[in-house]
Design brief:
five-stranded antiparallel beta sheet, 3 helices, alpha+beta, HIT family, subunit A, binds zinc ion, binds adenosine monophosphate
């Protein structure tokens, strides 16, 4: 199965990991839609939010932990711009990589369907 995010996870493609825990890793988006655009990606391949968390609801805790650690690392709570967390699920919702990930965005967002 061809999957860009599995390739990043398995180091088949180079990635600058900015945070990780036992279930997730985070990188900067290669094509940022905001001044700060971070992707929080599951280690385990799953198609989307529902596919991932319906099988591993207990992992929501580590999802929150890595997300909070990134909010703290980049001082997003103190940022004037605030921040958003978005999980596009399904092609019509704007999902282009079918491996579960969340977007953590801060700063002006361009023309992006949400
Ligand atoms: P989505 O459209 O919600 O599925 O989000 C996928 C995101 O992955 C897009 O914002 C892409 O810019 C980003 N992306 C795709 N390939 C890479 C990569 N190799 N490294 C970092 N971000 C990527
Ligand atoms: Zn994958």
């Amino acid at each position: 199965m061809d999957c860009i995010f599995c390739d990043l996870k398995n180091k088949k493609m180079p990635a600058q990991i900015i945070a990780k825990n036992k279930d997730f890793f985070a990188i900067f988006d290669i094509n940022p839609k905001a001044q700060k655009h971070i992707l929080i990606i599951s280690n385990r391949h799953a198609e989307n939010f529902h596919d991932y968390f319906s099988k591993n609801p207990e992992n929501f805790k580590s999802f929150i932990e890595i997300t909070n650690s990134l909010i703290e690392k980049y001082s997003l709570s103190e940022s004037d711009a605030g921040y958003k967390i978005i999980c596009n699920s399904g092609e019509k919702a704007g999902q282009s990589v079918n491996h579960f990930h969340a977007h953590l965005l801060s700063g002006k967002i361009g023309n992006w369907q949400v």
